[in-house]
Amino acid sequence: MPAESVQRFQSFAEFYPYYLQEHSNDTCRRLHYVGSLLVLCILGYTLASQQWLWLLAIPFAGYGFAWVGHFVFEKNKPATFKYPLYSFMGDWVMLKDALTGRIRF
User: Which parts of the chain span the membrane according to its record (predicted)?
Assistant: First the structure.
């Protein structure tokens, strides 16, 4: 039996509080925001310029900032490793919640 058991979530609504708990460090969360906003900028630039090679930068921008936040500041493993889809969704919902004032920026 593995030392660390994987918690199973039945829905994203059930997962999201766990996701926020894994992002309790302000710097980690802010690095996620930077990465997500950078992804949107790259996507917008790529669509406007039709320089499709820029799409290769998206994973590095998004995950690079997030993973630095987790490994250096939060000192935990990114939820992406266990819950890739819910974690991806969580990044965008957390950004929306920060921009709308629902959670601390």
Answer: 31-48, 54-73
- Give the Cα separation of 30 and 7 in Å (integer): 26
Give me 88's structure tokens. 């991806």
What is 67-100 written as a DSSP string?
Answer: HHIIIIII-S--GGGT-HHHHHHHHHHHHHHHHT
Residue pLDDT, tens place only, 60-105 = 999 999 999 999 999 999 999 999 999 999 999 999 999 999 998 8
Average pLDDT over residues 39-43: 98
**Residues counted in the chain:** 105
Asked whether the predicted pLDDT for residue 1 surpasses 50, the reply is no
Residue for token digits 């990044």?
A: 91
Torsional sign, CA 103, 79, 35, 49: negative
